[in-house]
Amino acid sequence: MKKLIVITHPNLEESKVNNSWINELKKYPDDFIIHSLYDNYPNLDFNITDEQNLLSAHDEIIFQFPFHWFSTPFALKKYIDEVLAYGWAFGPSGDKIKGKKIHFAVSTGGKKESYDATSAISVSDLLNDFKLSFQYCGCIVDKLHVFYGAMFNPSEQSIQENTLAYINTFK
Hints:
Layout: E1 3-7, H1 16-25, E2 32-36, H2 37-40, H3 48-56, E3 60-66, H4 74-83, E4 101-107, H5 123-126, H6 128-136, E5 140-147, H7 156-170
Parallel strand pairs: 1-2, 1-3, 3-4, 4-5
Helix pairs in contact: 1-7
């Protein structure tokens, strides 16, 4: 079954890293469905039923986004608040995404040293709210892929190496 990639990048056209990931994903149309929230909903007025149906139709969902001030873009938080509704994702009869695998692909502006063990924060730790939300809905939070240092003009080679690692992580 195809994996759903939910992309939440407010400036996607400017992102070398996220565009590299997307271009590589497009080489595997039998494996991935690319769904950009900002492209589909420029005013962030989500069609809740359509989004719920899309999530229901996939066993694996990858949320791809950049970190902004150590968190996800606003649109992803809004999406989760609205789409993972009571009675659908949790609560009475709220089992529609139970058992689904949730993955994250995150690009950071900051370098790896900003997120390593010595700084007491990690990308995984910063995703705890989201991981707990999905676990509360009965999902299995599984893989994490990160590109560090996007704002420091990374080399094309480092982007390509990371892109191949991205595909290998989720294919």
